[in-house]
Structure formats: C-alpha cells, structure tokens
Amino acid sequence: MRKQSWFNTVSLTFGFAFLYIPMIFLVIFSFNESKLVTVWAGFSTKWYGELMRNEAFLEAAWVTIEVAVMSSTIATVLGTMAAFVLVRAGRFRGRTLFSGMIYAPLVMPEVITGLSLLLLFIAIGLDRGVVTIVLAHATFSMCYVSVVVSSRMASFDESLEEAALDLGCTAWDAFKSVTLPIIAPAVASGWLLAFTLSLDDLVIASFAAGPSSTTLPIKIYSSVRLGLSPEINALSSMMIGLVTIGVLVASITSKRAIQKQKRDELLAVQ
Known about the structure:
Layout: H1 6-29, H2 46-52, H3 55-88, H4 95-107, H5 110-123, H6 130-154, H7 158-166, H8 171-199, H9 203-208, H10 216-225, H11 230-269
Helix pairs in contact: 1-11, 2-11, 3-6, 3-8, 3-10, 4-6, 6-8, 7-8, 8-11
C-alpha cells in the first residue's frame, strides 16, 4: 500500500478544517443563551423553541421540503431514463447533442441556468411559484442523477437480462424484476443527491420563486442580510443534521445493498 505523503496529509487536514470548523462553531452557538451570536453566555435550547414558533420559517421549510421531494422524484425518473438511453442505446443520430444537453447543467453557471429558466417561464406565461421551482430544480439535478445511475449501469451484466428474456419475460418484466433491483442503490443515491441539491439551492430558486413560494435558503439569506440571529444558527444546525442523517442513511443502505448483491452473485455461481 502506497504511503501517504506529508503534503497530502497537511493539505487534507487544512482543507477539511477550513470546511467543517465553521459548521461546528455554528452548531455550538445555536445553543447559546445570549442573543448576540458571537458572545457565549451559557447553554440553552430556547432558540430552537423560538424557531418552532416562527411561522415564516416554518412555512418556508414546508415549501422547501415539498419542492425537494417532488423535484428529486421527477429528476430521478428522468435521469434514470436518460442514463438507460445513454448506456444501452449505443450509437444513434443525435447522441452527442443528447448527452450534451443532459450534462450541460453540470458545467453551466447557476445564474445562467436560473436566468434562462426565468425567461422561459415568462415566455410561456407560467406564474412563478412552487411549480416553477420544482421544474427548475428537476432540470438542473437530473444530470447528477444520470451520472450516478449511468456509472452503475455501465458495469451491469447484461447477460442477466438476456437470461430473463430467454425464460419468457417481456422487456418490461426483465427491467422491473432484474435490472431495477440491481441499480436500485444507485437510483436511491441519485434521489438523495437530487433532494440535497434542491434543499440547499439558493441561486436558481431565487429566479424561479414567486412572492408566495419562498424557500428556506432564500428566507435565510434575506434574514442574514438584516443581521445575524440565534434562530438562524438553530435553523442552519437543523439543516446540517438533516443532511448528515440523509448521507449516513444513503451510505449504509448502499453498502448493505452492494454486499447483498455480492452474496447473491456468489450463491448463483455456486
């Protein structure tokens, strides 16, 4: 095993420290008794109680979760279909254009994506609200789902599908009974990735949101511009906890599914 160099060790240490130490301080000061966010006055959970009584934040949180669930579901369906076409369809007329359109949001600045979607919604006369945010988030997160699912399908053994077809299954039955269970961990990971991207998006949501559809990142940003408050720390800590739990659940689920798949393959060979 290759030994890690001191430069890589130091770089990783400083990189992770620069990223996570501010988050740790944010979580710590969310339990601060004082209303001043930079002065520690003792341990208290009263700001979490104040947050639960803040109707504006609760409404924004509900809109955010609603948008994240719907947009990630749409993005997962479309991204899985796109990955299936890119991996299984082989060469066809317009493949380069199709793949370029799928992966364009990966490299496109979010400001450009948000502005173009805003112009589209205005051109077709669609009022900005929850629907436009869902469409916008599904558009830019679909490519991430496609990348995750296509990487799994590229290593998929097609002989399993062929065996199912030889046994009398239709193409849909083979996909539903053979392909989908095998790629399910990748599909679930793609859904969680799209959910997380929608949960913390600010730029695109600010273009697609309407007066009655404020998401949580927009609400936090507008509140921070007026001054920091312990409620913002408490809300940010809850979002960090939610994302952390989601990542851990996804990692554990994916690991167990891969282990189960390997055991099944070994039993099938024996």
